[in-house]
């Protein structure tokens, strides 16, 4: 019976060692493939941790494709995020310009109203001046007639 237990124990140890060896070998192959990769692994420091691409299992083509797609989407996400930030900055600039234009428009309207009032006042003054000049001429004529008849 001791021989059977020993054989079972050896079999179990062999399976464990075999599994450990396979795991270590896979890890070593994976790490060497990562080191030997032509393009360095992309980094996405602006991306939240939960959105970071998970490293692929290099022995599975689908895993590599999913990883590449994820990296592509992460790049697109970063581009969109930066574009949104740029557009928000531009929106702030345009809003400031719009505010300045509205102030200028209000000031222009105030100047137009002031010009209209001053023009009207000027017209009234011209009319009064003309009337007074006519009255003065009439008074001169009357005064000359009085002096001539005296």
Overview of this structure, please?
The chain is mainly alpha-helical and 150 residues long. The chain is built from two helices and no strands. It has two domains: 1-36; 37-149.
What's the layout of helices and strands?
Elements: H1 2-36, H2 61-149
Organism: Danio rerio (Zebrafish)
Keywords: Coiled coil
Protein name: Map3k7 C-terminal-like
Please tell me the overall pLDDT: 82
What integer value in Å does the Rg equal? Answer: 47 Å
CA distance, first residue to last residue: 170 Å
**Shape summary:** rod-shaped
Number of discrete helical segments: 2
How many β-strands, per DSSP?
Answer: 0
The ordered H/E elements are HH
SS-derived structural category: mainly alpha
- Bin the helical content: over 70%
Number of domains: 2
Q: Determine the strand fraction and express it as a percent band.
A: under 5%
Poorly predicted segments: 1-5
Query: Strand count, sense and closure of the main sheet?
Result: none
Keywords: Coiled coil
Protein name: Map3k7 C-terminal-like
InterPro entries: Map3k7cl
Descriptive tags:
single chain; 2 domains; mainly alpha; disordered N terminus; 150 residues; 2 helices
């Amino acid at each position: 019976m001791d021989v059977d237990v020993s054989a079972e124990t050896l079999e179990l140890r062999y399976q464990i060692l075999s599994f450990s060896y396979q795991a270590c070998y896979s890890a070593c192959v994976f790490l060497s493939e990562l080191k030997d990769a032509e393009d360095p692994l992309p980094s996405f420091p602006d991306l939240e941790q939960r959105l970071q691409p998970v490293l692929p299992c290099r022995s599975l083509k689908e895993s590599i494709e999913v990883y590449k797609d994820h990296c592509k989407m992460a790049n697109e996400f970063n581009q969109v995020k930066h574009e949104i930030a740029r557009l928000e900055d531009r929106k702030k600039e345009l809003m400031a310009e719009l505010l300045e234009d509205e102030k200028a428009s209000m000031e222009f309207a105030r100047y137009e109203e002031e010009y209209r009032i001053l023009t009207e006042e000027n017209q009234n003054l011209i009319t009064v001046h003309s009337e007074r000049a006519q009255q003065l001429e009439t008074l001169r004529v009357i005064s000359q007639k009085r002096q001539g008849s005296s």
